[in-house]
Amino acid sequence: MEHFTLSYTTTPRLQEGHLPRLCGVVASGNLEVLVEPLDAADLCLIEVNTSAPGFRVIWEALLSDFVERNQVGGVQISINDAGATPAVVGLRLDQALDAYRSGL
Amino acid sequence: MNINGLLDRLFGPGGHSINIGDNFLHGSAVMGDRQVAVIGTHEHAAIDTALALEVSASILRVIRDDLGRGCSPRPVIFMVDTQGQALSRHEELLCLNGYFAHVAQCVDLARRNGHRTISLIHGEAVSGGFLAFGLMADRVCALPEAQVRVMDLKAMSRITKIPYDRLVDLSADSPVFAPGAENYWRMGAVHEIWSAEADWRSCLGAALEIADAGDKRALLGLERGGRLHAAPIAQLVASA
Amino acid sequence: MTNVRPTSFFEATARGRVAKLVDAGSFREFCPPRLRRTSPHLARLNAPVAFDDGVAVGSATLEGYKILIAAQEGKFNGGAVGEVHGAKLVGLLDRGIRERPAAVLLLVDSGGVRLHEANAGLIAISEIMRGVLRTQAAGVPVFALVGGACGAFGGMGIVTRLCNEIIMSEEGRLGLSGPEVIETVKGVEEFDSRDRPLVWRVTGGKVRRALGEATYLVDDDIDSFRSVTAELLCRYGAKPLAVADIDEVTAEHARLAERAGRFATARDGREIFQASGFVDLDEVSLLPVAKFNQQLLEYI
């Protein structure tokens, strides 16, 4: 397993009062993404736990791209990954953030 | 130690009247001034529907007899020696898990009717066979030679793809997956392991005295350090 | 209002099943993922963990009835039971005794004990078994819903059979030992685990319904599971749950003994279907659920 946490400074969050949301399943080729509020309104923390070590560079590229494209200020994202492809990771992140924002 | 030797040691020669079949045994014994029922398996029995029906029929007979006589419900001693469930397409078709559930229900019915229940592991206690009645008793005791497990480490290594040597190493520090009565003791599922020199008759008597109808195994596992999370998490969910 | 497009129970995740089974938005989770009560044993073996350790438990309503509900995630470690996972189920059943919901629903999707924490899993299942019995003794029914890829096997197969009602889809399976285990130990002649139609003829929803092991057979559609569950909640709500006494358990014993005798040499569900009155045995596995149920009732 490989574990690392990435920290991004962002524009401050727009809304408060979101509830934690979980998307995805920890199965081979898949991952789960937990999105929660973070106290610091202009910070995004992303914690990655992956059973496929050695791809940190790819994760960093993918995640900084995700942070740039989305309003993720005041958000904490935690990932349990079991070898998902970047495409699946991107999909899950989008789903999780959507669910978090819409409260569904 | 053969089954007759064991019964003599537990109840004294002449202190038991037990029908011993190929892999099933049942009857009664005397402990001090009271009668106890004895039901169980030996010869590392593989439990199939037939054996499950024999065990449950015996339990039901004990309950009915005591209800009929209006006397104080007799304690039931379950002798446990099983290699686990019978592996057979026929048994699966019949839904063997349903027969195991029925045995468990019978043990529970005995408990609810006031019968104290003790399991004594005198051989193997494996997986589904252990779930059916052994693990359902109020109190589980193990003889020194008892072998308790879900699966042996070699098979576990094959299925989980974790190297055998790694499993052996890890099991030195943690009781959570490796075979062994001591591991089950630490985790709260075996209440006592008797020593070879002990007076097994008094051990059994003492076990009957302190046997408790409530299921406190998670707390016991916590106290003994073998299961640190079961009790707190069950508690959290029960009262969140 | 029912969904226009049916949602497959089989394909859905555990959380997806809960979301569509219960009244919209009514699910309140206990020990939720944000508490991160993951398995230390999996971590020690360098295996990935899940924030909910593979089972979501909580309270909800279904057609207004208060229920407690647990859903196992079959895609995570085969839905297998470990220390944390098992404790969540035990805690839920204990809560049922205190809160007296209309029922506790167990969405079982599990191969049984999680080998990575084998002893903890076995003990947990034993505690779940006692928990189901205790909850029933307190007057709260427990229903099992079986329709996922793992089915209900191992110790969870035993737990399922302790439940008051078992709702299965045709895709669901219920048994004790998986066909692969039997094939490995006893050989392919005994059980060819790759013969999928055979596997379903031995442990699938239809044969379980024909045997009476499953009390209801439904389509693979969350709405169908929901309707039958709602019916059961209504029926059980109308009168208090009778605790199994010696007469009831003796009657069950007689049924089980009679079945073992009647099918003493049976090795294939076809024999069960034949005894249930089906004539065209090759057709049975192709029958739509509604037709199967209708014909089964006609033959009884």
How many helices of chain A?
2
Number of strands of chain B: 9
In DSSP terms, counting alpha (H) and pi (I) runs of 4 or more, how many helices of chain B? 11
Describe the global form of chain A: globular
Proportion of beta-strand residues of chain B? 15-25%
Q: Kindly, what is the distance between the CA atoms of the first and last residues of chain B, rounded to a whole number of angstroms?
A: 50 Å
> What number is the mean pLDDT of chain A?
94
Radius of gyration of chain A: 13 Å
Element-by-element helix/strand order of chain B? HEEEEHEHHEHEEHHHEHHH
Oligomeric organization of the protein chains: heterotrimer
Helix content of chain B: 40-55%
Q: How much helix, percentage-wise, in residues of chain A?
A: 25-40%
Succession of helices and strands of chain A: EEEEHEH
Largest interface: B-C, 76 and 85 residues
Q: Which structural class should the secondary elements of chain A be placed in?
A: alpha+beta
Q: Report Rg of chain B.
A: 18 Å
Number of strands of chain A: 5
Strand content of chain A: 25-35%
Most strands sheet of chain B: 9 strands, mixed
General description of the model:
The complex is a heterotrimer of chains A (104), B (240) and C (300). In chain A, helix 1 (56-69) runs parallel beside helix 2 (86-102). Chain A contains two helices and five strands. Chain A is 30% helix and 33% strand. A five-stranded mixed sheet of chain A has the order 1-4-5-3-2, with helices on one face. The longest helix of chain A is centred in the C-terminal third of the chain and has 17 residues, at 86-102. Chain B is 46% helix and 22% strand. Chain B is built from eleven helices and nine strands. In chain B, helix 2 runs parallel beside helix 4. Chain C is 46% helix and 13% strand. Chain C contains 13 helices and seven strands. A seven-stranded mixed sheet of chain C has the order 1-2-3-4-5-6-7, with helices on both faces. Chain C is globular and about 55 Å long. Chains in contact: A-C, B-C.
